[in-house]
Amino acid sequence: MPTINFEGQDFVCGEDETVLECMTRSGMLIPSSCQSGTCQTCVIRALEGTPPPGSQNGLKDTLKQQNYFLACICKPEEDMTIGLSLVSPRNTVNVIEKDALNESVVRLRLEKPDGFSYKSGQFINLVRTSDDLTRSYSLASTPDDDFLELHIKRVPDGKMSCWVFDTLQVADEVAFFGPAGDCFYVPGKPDQPLLLVGTGTGLAPLYGILRDVLVQGHTGPVHLFHASLAAPGLYLEQSLRDFATQYEHFTYTPCVLHGDTPEGGQQGNIADIPARELGSLSGYRVFLCGDPPIVNALRQKSFLAGVSMQDIFSDPFVFAAQDG
Ligand SMILES: Cc1cc2nc3c(=O)[nH]c(=O)nc-3n(C[C@H](O)[C@H](O)[C@H](O)COP(=O)(O)OP(=O)(O)OC[C@H]3O[C@@H](n4cnc5c(N)ncnc54)[C@H](O)[C@@H]3O)c2cc1C
Ligand code: FES
Description:
By secondary structure, the chain is of the alpha/beta class. The protein has helices at about 20-25, 60-65, 160-165, 205-215, 235-245, 275-280, 290-305; strands spanning about 5, 10, 45-50, 70, 80-85, 90-100, 105-110, 125-130, 135-140, 145-155, 175-180, 195-200, 220-230, 250-255, 265, 285-290, 310-315. The protein starts with a strand and ends in an 8-residue tail after the last strand.
């Protein structure tokens, strides 16, 4: 069995065990969130030994070359010495605004640290400073905003989301590290049609991307479909309708699975609606965010409707089955 050396102590990795599971079982705290290789919270560095290539999926080449890897998907094949050298510095900031966007979604605005740079649609890893509980949240703000905006949905019994709803107050301190993620708009091809589809708080990254796209003078048609189980789950409707009035090439379609169809909206399975409404999606660039099974279904349907895989960007909001 491979041995993990950390700060002079040896930990034997069980059969089929990840580095994260081994260290957690041994009482060592490694920050983690999704536990499935998506959020990059658990990135650590092999100081000796080589991490298996699969444990570096999604990391930048510069990090791969320095032997960084994701502890939650790393089943070591040889002995390793690891160090918790952080890839990005941890920022400590105050909450500057907190308000309800609907019954189950809260908008947090955080101070933006000097020199912090990101692209709209990327995410940060938010840290509760009292115990280092960490979860990923997408940025709904754009780099031009002088705050960082998050949209957080209350998950029943969810440790972070319920704390944000029930306890966190304006002026309180939180920490975060990041940004990470590659679901963002890259300028170029200004006349390419864009399709943005999100479920629930999957609107957060899309709201940032949309404002970025409009500000950057994208001229091609931009379609945003925002889906919820029923109308009360939608949010920022008026703001999106205002954008649609202001920008002729932008359309906003609120979608629900059940109940009354919102004005100008659609009812049905969101995985079917964009292709049904727009027809062929050949030539489109597509951004998909939110509930993982729906994001995966939309990715498949977009491909079948003609979108090149290279033009599909997605952020499934993967969560750990058990707390990490
Ligand atoms: C890249 C990325 C971006 C994300 N962006 C956002 C965002 O912008 N807004 C946002 O609200 N969330 C976002 N998430 C999800 C977020 O990171 C947390 O998973 C979520 O807030 C739940 O955390 P929690 O601590 O409240 O729940 P936990 O204590 O982790 O979970 C409690 C229980 O609920 C289950 N659970 C957790 N999340 C869900 C869910 N969404 N639906 C159903 N069951 C669930 C868990 O399996 C567990 O049993 C994102 C996730 C990723 C990976
Ligand atoms: S990538 Fe390892 S916890 Fe998310």
